[in-house]
């Protein structure tokens, strides 16, 4: 299950802006995007990932992604930072 990758990651970034900065710096191995997130929040990051060749995994909901990240609220985007 893709949520397990988020839970087991040593270093994750939560949020589209922070994730975009890290993708731009080639410091991200994989990005997780919630299917129910507002596309206006995620579209720039998704396009950036496609251009940079970063893997994108879509997960069912923001609530589940937030829980996997260890936060109390939903998360539209999370990124696994390279070791």
Automatic annotation (TrEMBL):
Superkingdom of the source species: Bacteria
Residues of the Ribosomal protein eL8/eL30/eS12/Gadd45 domain: 4-82
Pfam families linked to this entry: Ribosomal_L7Ae
InterPro entries referenced in this protein's UniProt entry, alphabetically: Ribosomal_eL30-like_sf, Ribosomal_eL8/eL30/eS12/Gad45
SUPFAM superfamilies referenced in this protein's UniProt entry, alphabetically: L30e-like (SSF55315)
GO cellular component: ribosome
Protein name: 50S ribosomal protein L7ae-like protein
